[in-house]
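Appendix B.2, paired examples.
Example (i):
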Amino acid sequence: RHIENYHLHHAKELVDALERVVREDGVEQIVLAGDAVIIPVLRDQLPAHLSDRIIDILRLDITTPEHEILRATTEALREHDGQTDAQQVEHLLDQYRSRQLAVVGAQATIAALTLGQVDVLLVSASSDAVHDDAASVEGADVTPSDGTPVSEQVVRLARNTGAHISFIEDPALLADVGGVGAMLRYRL
């Protein structure tokens, strides 16, 4: 019983520390790591607002070296980000194909950014994957006069208009649309 109480007390201390870190640092994703004894106790103590942020649970022994914990955590975050990126791009393309609130390609995205229509900009994290498409957009001068790469131009415009920016790690996800697209707030 003494050991069980110790584990419970330890779990409560961990949850308090985690709540403070999440609040102060604005943490959106949590990866839990621990052994088979503490993880269930910890899960039982987590409030819903923290449990909802858990993206993976790693079963690691207490003697696991720090560099292995970092590697495993990084892999879990990459895998989760890859899934999230794929879902975001799929949603963008579905909206675009059904002629809803979405645009794809550099020209259309820059035009929408210029008009303040963009809610979420999806742009390939690889600047080489973002390129100007051949289509022109009526009434929008989208050629950067200073030689700024298209990826930098769309990010700058998104920041200026308060649009959320989502960098897509896998360049293949947005390759068919020039590496960039956007979910719109409204359509003109």
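Example (ii):
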Amino acid sequence: KMFTDPIADYLTRVRNAQMAGHKVVEIPASNMKKAITEILHKKGYILNFKFEETANNQGNIKVALKYNAQTKLPAIKKLTRISKPGLRKYADSKTLPRVINGLGIAILSTSRGVITDKEARNLNVGGEVICHVY
């Protein structure tokens, strides 16, 4: 049986849109996905985003993708799902992942909300490692 993994779906939609060179990708919203989107924006991996209401109340996230002006390459090289519904991956404050020596970021779901590995280190909290971005 297929478990749906909305976060994996979100990451895949972003990856596919980038590969196709789209400017904008629309994704069904959730609080977790909104938080991930805000981090991607804050860290400069996407140009912009907008949360939109929809008829079914789920809402949509419109993500404006970012590309290098010269090379036309996507700002996000790699977007990897780490924790999966069937196999959750957790890290405590001491074993927080380092994504390519700190060039990339890990996004974690912690008791302090959805934050980057760097913020988790500063707050000395661990949590579920949602994904790696670089």
